[in-house]
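User: Before I run my own analysis I want an independent prediction to cross-check against. Here's the chain; please return only the structure tokens and, at the end, one sentence I can use as a sanity check.
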Amino acid sequence: MRLRLFVLLMFAICVGAGPALAEKRVALVMGNSAYKNVARLANPANDATLVGGMFRKAGFDTVDIKLDLNGSEMRRALRDFGGKARDAGVAVVYYAGHGIELDGVNYLIPTDATLETDSDVLDETIALDRALFAVEPAKQLRLIILDACRDNPFAKTMKRTIASRAIGRGLAKVEPTSPNTMIAFAAKAGSTASDGDSKNSPFAAALVERLPTPGLDLRKAFGFVRDDVLKNTGYKQEPFVYGSLGGDDVPLVAVKPVVTGPQANPDSEIRRDYELALQLGTRDGWTAFLNRFPSGFYSDLAKGQLNKIAAEETRAAAAEKARQAEEEKARLASDRAKKAEQEKAAAAAKAAEDAKAAAEKAKQIEEAKAAAAEQRRKDAEAAVAKTLADKEAAEKALAEKIANDKAAAELAARQANDKAQGEQKVAAVTPTQSPPSLSPQETAKLVQSELRRVGCLAAAADGDWNASSLRSLTLFNQYAGTKLDPKLASFDALDIIKSKPGRVCPLVCNRGFKADGDTCVKITCRAGYRVNDDNGCEKVQDKKPVATREDANKRDAERKQVESRPAKPQTSGQIVCGVGIGGCRPVRPGCRLEQKNSTNVEVCN
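Assistant: Structure tokens:
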């Protein structure tokens, strides 16, 4: 009964939270890495991108992601976001970067800040109250998330105008005055946060892991964030949340309604109760679950969760005892207690510290057991889901195979019917004998004419059944799928060819011609080109004449004939001609012409 009451209560809470989740949700995400006057921070820009993507996946109506903002850009972003929050039910501001605390007031540091003196904080930074003012109009939830507790390099070089002015380490504790307002610090007041060794800080990585859990209340989600960060930083960094919410659960992502199909898992009711107890995460919840379901797979998981809670309680008790021992030790030291008492207190403190370490180890062991059991639960549910999916796929494949076989059978029957009808039609049009009124030559001429019509004969229909006609009827058999005797022009062949309504044989043209519809047209090339063997146009190559041996012999005979011809005598005293001279030329200086044997010769002294 108690578990039933708990289920009804959780259902009422979810129903009551429904209108809030239906309200508009807006988020402003800012990440400052590229500081101009101090060393660059590695992760804030990456963290802002990661967290902004988480809000978008969570279904926020508006998510503004702003990176590396100076002072004026940060003020403008907060002013614009305040306008969007006026008609919103949920408003969230996330900031990653440097922050500073001055006289108990927290400030966010833009990338262009110099902060040479403590008075510059008022002029060059953005007060945290300005972010609170931006989310103030939201009706249901106002949430500020600050990953700004890093070690501040400005404080080390900043000059103090007043020696007593306090500049704290990390950020100062803050108590929101507006209802339904939460402020989450990456590290509690007075301590610093780690930037991490990976792409994202431990705080940002835990946020995106825990906050989007469907139906998980924000307070519980931030509790899980705290546990994750403590574990991942060796218990050196503890996130902290300030402010308060009402009694209803306020999840960032609502639980999707569970639709139970006709083949629902018989353990679905137990699983739902287990998941509700897991969200509650208290000893009472797990005890109520075990009272209703004392045995079974989920009961074993619940026992593991109880062991985890017991280990946490033991660790907390050991930590509290260690703290008390440390306080007692400090008190004895301040009161100048006796050495024996101090040694006793030191021993007690050491024993308490050892007990704390043992409790921490025991808690880690139980957490590992619980995580392994939870993984086994998820694997079992996944196996059941896979079995159902495989069964559904097999049934679908069988149905498709039956449908395909049926379609193939129908197609085969239809093709057989068409073939039978075609054979009947051919048989109906085939005459038993040729009319006695036509001679074989006239019959051949009719068959040739039909072969020309279907494109299988290029020659004229002259009634002479020659080799060309035989080849044309063979081509018709090839393309029409018939088995007519090509050696004879018969009326059977004539009727079958007439049954073809259009061209059967493809058009084949001679060299220099190409097909144009049902006719061959001559191929015409432009000037300087000619038709080649592939019926394409190619450029005409100019060929130089090749000298042959006959031409060479002819030139030698002409030269010998000229050389054997006697030179004509010259009457001029200035020119001499002759075969040995190679023609006619002027008489050389110091020489003269003399006539010998009726021929002028050149004589030189």
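Sanity check: Residues 440-498 form one domain.
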